[in-house]
Amino acid sequence: MNTNLIVAIVALVLVIAVAIVVWGVVHFKRNGGTSSDGIAAHAREDDGPEASDDGGAAGRGVPVTDAPAQSGTTSVAPVSAGSVASGEPVPERPESSASRVTRLKAKLSKSSNPFGKALFNILAKDNLSESDWEDVEDTLLLADVGSEASEELVEGLRRDSRVNGDADPAAVREALRSKLVDLVNVEPDRALNADKPGATRPSVIIMVGVNGTGKTTTAGKLARLFVSEGKSVMLAAADTFRAAAADQLETWGSKVNVPVVRAEKEGADPASVAFEASRRAKEENVDVLIVDTAGRLQNKANLMDELGKIRRVTEKNLPVDEVLLVLDATTGQNGMVQAKVFAEAIGLTGVVLSKLDGSAKGGIVVSVQRELGVPVKLVGLGEGPDDLAPFDPEGFVEGVLA
Ligand SMILES: Nc1nc2c(ncn2[C@@H]2O[C@H](COP(=O)(O)OP(=O)(O)OP(=O)(O)O)[C@@H](O)[C@H]2O)c(=O)[nH]1
Ligand SMILES: [Mg+2]
């Protein structure tokens, strides 16, 4: 081969190599200096978010700006939100808290929640027999009030002169009403911590619970509730098992123009999403950050540990004010077992009782509060976007007695 040809080939190879290097640098800069492997890589505890002060985000290519996502190059997607830019849908205006309480009270009384009515029908009889009292207790047990509370209520009613003898129905109803309110209203402080005077800002709420209880729906509804109060909200899709879970949350967010922080890839470390979201919430000084997590069975120890990790990593940026357990009211007493394990794994500050519209078992309100010592703060009464209301014990009892 002649020397000129060899020189020409070497020169060509050098030019190509230089071009590749230049392209690589430009591409790297355009991505805000992020690496391309992403957090999808793996939620290993040893190199996970807890291993470094930034929750592992930096080393995993979590972008530090809100630059547009480069598909496949970032791991936690930039905040996405419904936009009010021209051509985009105008954000919905969620129903106010006061209006939904009135509407949902009516809904509760129309729903299949007959235990109050059944109790009243027995108690309004003249001269109650032993078997009537047994029926009262059975009715309470069937409604999931729990055995201890049922016994207490029956004893209280038996002692009450308004119930014994030939009392008029109005007096019996009043006796039953006040005893049920006493039973339900054991935890007077039901306000969400984010709504309390002097709440930390941003307030952080983590939603937890077993599969399908209504966590994502409740996170979406809750975002709307805060928006209706004029608060700024951010959502975090820390359910990274399925991309559909983040899409579901994004649909909720986009309707009310609430940004959603999500992982770019399925299987990313949920703690990294929580870390990134809490960092952004702090940076943007939003009022409330709501973190949705994947459903998990309480007997899967590794998944329960993951919840603890999500909490600890979030706390590197912001204190966690609230952990809400979403409990499906139709699950009945089985929900109690779940609730206890979640309380141990992550600590709970409140319960959301979802699907109360489809349940004859509203008595779980009584057992969950007595056994866990945490208040029911919210109730879900349907699949509609604003079918979530603060739990109101008096209204609840009126509903079951209506
Ligand atoms: N009737 C009724 N349905 C509800 C309520 N809350 C949630 N749902 C429905 O319950 C189903 C499950 O809700 P999701 O929010 O996806 O439940 P999840 O807990 O996020 O589920 P995973 O993430 O899979 O664990 C959906 O069909 C919701 O519409 C409620 O208060 N009443
Ligand atoms: Mg979900």
Automatic annotation (TrEMBL):
PANTHER family: SIGNAL RECOGNITION PARTICLE RECEPTOR SUBUNIT ALPHA (PTHR43134)
Keywords: Cell membrane, Cytoplasm, GTP-binding, Hydrolase, Membrane, Nucleotide-binding, Receptor, Transmembrane, Transmembrane helix
Region entry Disordered, spans: 34-105
Family named by the database record: Belongs to the GTP-binding SRP family. FtsY subfamily.
Entry's EC annotation: 3.6.5.4
Reactions catalysed: GTP + H2O = GDP + phosphate + H(+)
Organism: Bifidobacterium bohemicum DSM 22767
The protein, known as: Signal recognition particle receptor FtsY
GO biological-process terms attached to the record: SRP-dependent cotranslational protein targeting to membrane
Annotated Gene Ontology cellular component terms: cytoplasm; plasma membrane
Key word Lyase present: no
UniProt topology in membrane: Peripheral membrane protein
Superkingdom field: Bacteria
Cellular localization per UniProt: Cell membrane; Cytoplasm
Bias (Low complexity) ranges: 75-87
Binding site for GTP: 209-216, 292-296, 354-357
Enzyme class: hydrolase
Subunit structure: Part of the signal recognition particle protein translocation system, which is composed of SRP and FtsY.
GO molecular function, one term: signal recognition particle binding
Chain segments annotated as transmembrane: 6-26
Start and end residues of each SRP54-type proteins GTP-binding domain: 375-388
Main subcellular location of this protein, as a coarse class: membrane
InterPro entries xref list: AAA+_ATPase (IPR003593), P-loop_NTPase (IPR027417), Signal_recog_particl_SRP54_hlx (IPR013822), SR_rcpt_FtsY (IPR004390), SRP/SRP_N (IPR036225), SRP54_GTPase_dom (IPR000897), SRP54_N_sf (IPR042101)
UniProt function note: Involved in targeting and insertion of nascent membrane proteins into the cytoplasmic membrane. Acts as a receptor for the complex formed by the signal recognition particle (SRP) and the ribosome-nascent chain (RNC).
UniProt-listed Gene3D superfamilies: P-loop containing nucleotide triphosphate hydrolases, Signal recognition particle SRP54, nucleotide-binding domain
